[in-house]
Specification:
It holds the Pfam family PIGBOS1. InterPro entries: PIGBOS1. It is a single chain. With 53 residues, the chain is mostly helical. The chain is built from 1 helix and no strands.
Amino acid sequence: MFRRRFLSFPLVIGAVIIGVVSGKAIFAQPLDEYWKKKLQEEPAAKENDLSTS
């Protein structure tokens, strides 16, 4: 029949490292912009909530 082969531990660790590094390279700048915008909107939203109550 078929024989199962499991991935070796170093191969898995290498794939995880490559994934994290490439993910940071691709998504770091858009995420920074998103959080900067989100943090700027947060005080304005709290101010609006206080003024409406």
